[in-house]
Every structure is written in structure tokens, then in C-alpha cells.
Amino acid sequence: MNDEKQKCQKCGSENIMMVEYTHDHPEHYDGASEIECRDCGAHFGRWSGKELAEGEVEPRYGTVRA
User: What Rg do the C-alpha atoms of the chain give, in angstroms?
Assistant: First the structure.
């Protein structure tokens, strides 16, 4: 088991929060979809690892569906 704490990709802080979209959100997944840094405010997609712009969401499983 890996005991290393997850860190923000932008500032290195360990003060992160997993974000789960609401049940009625179009990209809802039963679990976290984003990682948010509580220090610098950056958001990263759970699957893509991409930094999300303000208002951008992580597509379910990190892929856009048709």
C-alpha cells in the first residue's frame, strides 16, 4: 500500500480536497472527479490529471463521450 500523501501538482501542498459532482450533474460519477488544492485553488481532473480552467469540469472517466 502506498502511504505517500497526494500533493497539488501546481504548488506541492498536501492540503487537497477531493470533489464529487452532485447527483444531477451531467458528469456525475459515484466518487471524486476532481482534486482541488485548498491552498492555491487549482483544480485537476481525477482521471486526466489536467489542470481545469475556471468553470471547466472533468468528463466522467476523463474522456468526452459522443
Answer: 12
Say how many CA atoms lie within 13 Å of 1 toward its Cβ.
2
Kindly provide the b/e burial profile for residues 30-53, where b requires at least 16 CB atoms within 10 angstroms of the residue's own CB: eeebbbbbeeeebbbbbeeeeebe
Separation between Cα atoms, residue 56 and residue 52, nearest integer Å = 6
Cα distance between residue 46 and residue 21, in whole Å: 12
Rounded (10°) CA dihedral 25, 28, 32, 38? -20
The model's pTM is 0.83
Residue 3 to residue 1: CA distance in whole angstroms: 6
**Whether pLDDT at 55 is above 80:** yes
Helix (H, G, I), strand (E, B) or coil at 62: helix
